[in-house]
């Protein structure tokens, strides 16, 4: 379900999908994907509203997607043998993500 959340970064109300919820000392935080900006953010539970009827039917501008058959790699360093090899990784490292975003822009 799509909700409306207030993004501190964008300083406006945005449509979002709630992906996770966790408890903090001062209340609940929600991990959200902003469907019109393709950004992730965390929002306090007080800044979440139910989306009004007609607005829920508007198509999202951003879609989650994956690169077909592209898997993350990382540099594996063996200090004992003094070698470095590229190998599979569980997640994309930060430098690869930043490089990919620059290519897209």
Automatic annotation (TrEMBL):
<dbReference type="InterPro" id="IPR002999">
    <property type="entry name" value="Tudor"/>
</dbReference>
<protein>
    <recommendedName>
        <fullName>RNA helicase</fullName>
        <ecNumber>3.6.4.13</ecNumber>
    </recommendedName>
</protein>
<feature type="domain" description="Tudor">
    <location>
        <begin position="3"/>
        <end position="68"/>
    </location>
</feature>
<keyword id="KW-0547">Nucleotide-binding</keyword>
<dbReference type="GO" id="GO:0003724">
    <property type="term" value="F:RNA helicase activity"/>
</dbReference>
<dbReference type="GO" id="GO:0005524">
    <property type="term" value="F:ATP binding"/>
</dbReference>
<keyword id="KW-0378">Hydrolase</keyword>
<dbReference type="InterPro" id="IPR035437">
    <property type="entry name" value="SNase_OB-fold_sf"/>
</dbReference>
<dbReference type="GO" id="GO:0042078">
    <property type="term" value="P:germ-line stem cell division"/>
</dbReference>
<dbReference type="GO" id="GO:0016787">
    <property type="term" value="F:hydrolase activity"/>
</dbReference>
<keyword id="KW-0677">Repeat</keyword>
<keyword id="KW-0347">Helicase</keyword>
<keyword id="KW-0067">ATP-binding</keyword>
<dbReference type="Pfam" id="PF00567">
    <property type="entry name" value="TUDOR"/>
</dbReference>
